[in-house]
Design brief:
By secondary structure, this protein is mainly beta. The chain has one domain: Sandwich (Immunoglobulin-like), CATH 2.60.40. It contains no helices and eleven strands. It has strands at about 5, 10-20, 30-35, 45, 50-55, 60-65, 70-80, 85, 90-100, 110-115, 115. The strands form three sheets. It has a five-stranded antiparallel β-sheet, with no helix packed on it. A hairpin with a 2-residue loop joins strand 5 and strand 6 (about 60-65).
Length: about 120
């Protein structure tokens, strides 16, 4: 993909969070998405699912509902931003989950996403 300058950037993300444990989650666990610093203030334009979502700068904070063992929460998240400077190629989004978990090793993820110009 080429570079973009002064064009709105739409980020459409589908997130799936699955409880791989043997007991239900307590609810209220915090999932943090950190978007590239080449984006300016993000604006939430759409969201679904049972999670509560807040945006501050280039960070999305998602408060998860109670999840039974093996259950998943699918969150479709639509964001718009104006890039700071020039965006080139795919961008990386990092995710981390703060949870009382016996296996913290599976609480992070990273994803490389394409960019759509509006």
């Amino acid at each position: 993909m080429g570079s973009l300058l002064n064009a709105n950037v739409t980020l459409a993300n589908t997130l799936t969070v699955t409880n791989l444990g043997t007991s239900a989650s307590t609810g209220g666990e915090v999932l943090t998405l950190t978007f590239p610093s080449t984006l300016s203030q993000l604006t939430l334009v759409s969201a679904d699912g049972l999670a509560t979502i807040t945006i501050l700068g280039t960070t999305a904070t998602i408060i998860l509902p109670v999840l039974a063992p093996g259950a998943s929460e699918v969150i479709n998240l639509g964001l718009v931003s104006l890039p700071l400077g020039v965006l080139t190629g795919p961008q990386t989004i990092d995710a981390s989950l703060a949870a009382n978990d016996t296996n913290a090793a599976n609480n992070t993820a990273s994803s490389t996403v394409g960019i759509t110009v509006l």
